[in-house]
Design goal:
- The chain has two helices and ten strands, in the order H-E-E-E-E-E-E-E-E-E-H-E.
- Helix content is 17%, strand content 55%.
- It has a six-stranded mixed barrel.
Length: 163
């Protein structure tokens, strides 16, 4: 019995050390963060949502067109300060978004570069009408997984400073 307790204790200590080392490699961010998009100086306030699988960006004046025999999309993004940027991106795919008490929506998905703190990652982002939401961007698990821990008590932990 004494030997079992020792083995179990050693196993628990080993598991704790492994989980601590994984957590130490990840940046801690808050539930709200400033982000830069598309490797530019354009900044938005984003809500960090660990419940969302994918990330979403508020887009205005969306126009699709063909370029090099592929589907592209031109759209505008505006931050709360009123600064606006127009982007053109290839459409990667369309995603069907299920909504509570409403019909499902079909949204275009693009690849977009996003910077939080010092971490720059390219990810799939769906374009949505988020004009009635406080935050113009929602960062989902497809950006966070493996890189970040989210502390729901924190807000705006660092300024985006990707190179």
């Amino acid at each position: 019995m004494n030997m079992r307790i020792r083995v179990l204790s050693l196993l628990l200590i080993w598991l704790f050390q492994i989980s601590s080392s994984f957590a130490a490699d990840k940046q801690v961010i808050g539930w709200l963060e400033q982000v830069k998009i598309n490797n530019s100086e354009f900044q938005l306030k984003a809500k960090i949502d660990t419940g969302a699988t994918t990330s979403s960006l508020n887009a205005y004046t969306i126009k699709s067109f063909n370029k090099d025999k592929k589907k592209w999309i031109r759209f505008s993004v505006k931050n709360k300060a009123g600064k606006k940027v127009i982007l053109e991106k290839e459409i990667v795919r369309y995603v069907k978004i299920k909504r509570k008490l409403a019909l499902a929506m079909k949204r275009p998905v693009i690849n977009l570069g996003v910077c939080i703190g010092k971490a720059y990652r390219e990810l799939e982002v769906n374009l949505a009408d988020r004009k009635n939401f406080e935050y113009q961007m929602l960062i989902g698990r497809n950006y966070l997984q493996g890189y970040f821990l989210v502390d729901s008590e924190l807000e705006y932990t660092s300024r985006p400073s990707c190179k």
